[in-house]
Amino acid sequence: TAPGPCSYTTLRDEAVKLFNSLQQLESERDPVPLMQGVLQTCLDLPPLVDEIYCQLVKQTTEPPVPGGQGDLHYWQLLTCMSCTFRPSPPVLRFLRFHLDRTENRFPASEMAKYACFIREALEKTKGRECVPSLEEILVLMQRQEMICTVHCPGAPACSVAISSHTTAEEVAQELVSRLGLSQSPNLFALYEQSRRREQPVGSATLLADVLTRFE
C-alpha cells in the first residue's frame, strides 16, 4: 500500500491506529478531540471510511453495558460519521440493518434515538469538504442543531439554526424571507470574511464546512 498524505503511513498501519483510538474512546473523559481526529483521518484516507463504520457497528453490537458511557461514545462517533461520510452500498445496508436491530431491541433508549438520527442523516449526507468542527461535534453528540450568526448590512445580526446538511443557499433564502425582501429583484448571497480575505460562499456549500474553516 502506498503511503497516505501528510504524515500518514500505510493504510494498514493507519487502520490499526484508528482501531486503537476507538478502544481509547470508550473510556475517554473528553472524547471530542479524539472523535475529530478519527474523522480527519477518514477524510484524508477515504478507503478507511468503511472500515471505521464496520468497527463502530461491531463496538455497538452486544456492548458490555448497553447505553453506558462507553457505548454512547461509540454511538456519538457513529452519529458524526453519518453526517460526514456516506459508506459504500454494502456497508450502508449492513449499517441500516444494525440501526433497525438496535431500535427494535432497545426502543425509547438513547441508542435507539441515535440510530434514528443516523438513519435520517444518511439520507442527506453527500460528503464534506471539512470534518465537523469541535462545536459541531458537541452539538451532534446531543442530536441538536447549531446556531449560526449571520451579519446583514443595514440590519441586526441574525441567528439561524443549521444542521450538518444546511447549504448557504438555504440560509440566504431564510434570511431574505425574514427581512421581507422576497419581492426584491436583487440577488442575495452569503460572504465568508476573515482577517485576510472576503469571498462569496457558493450556494451549494455546507455552512458547517465554513464554520470548521473558521475554527
Automatic annotation (TrEMBL):
<dbReference type="GO" id="GO:0005856">
    <property type="term" value="C:cytoskeleton"/>
</dbReference>
<dbReference type="InterPro" id="IPR038185">
    <property type="entry name" value="MyTH4_dom_sf"/>
</dbReference>
<feature type="domain" description="FERM">
    <location>
        <begin position="146"/>
        <end position="215"/>
    </location>
</feature>
<dbReference type="InterPro" id="IPR000159">
    <property type="entry name" value="RA_dom"/>
</dbReference>
<dbReference type="InterPro" id="IPR000299">
    <property type="entry name" value="FERM_domain"/>
</dbReference>
<dbReference type="Pfam" id="PF21989">
    <property type="entry name" value="RA_2"/>
</dbReference>
<dbReference type="GO" id="GO:0007165">
    <property type="term" value="P:signal transduction"/>
</dbReference>
<feature type="domain" description="Ras-associating">
    <location>
        <begin position="144"/>
        <end position="215"/>
    </location>
</feature>
<feature type="domain" description="MyTH4">
    <location>
        <begin position="1"/>
        <end position="141"/>
    </location>
</feature>
<protein>
    <submittedName>
        <fullName>PKHH3 protein</fullName>
    </submittedName>
</protein>
<dbReference type="InterPro" id="IPR000857">
    <property type="entry name" value="MyTH4_dom"/>
</dbReference>
<dbReference type="Pfam" id="PF00784">
    <property type="entry name" value="MyTH4"/>
</dbReference>
<dbReference type="InterPro" id="IPR051724">
    <property type="entry name" value="Actin_motor_Myosin"/>
</dbReference>
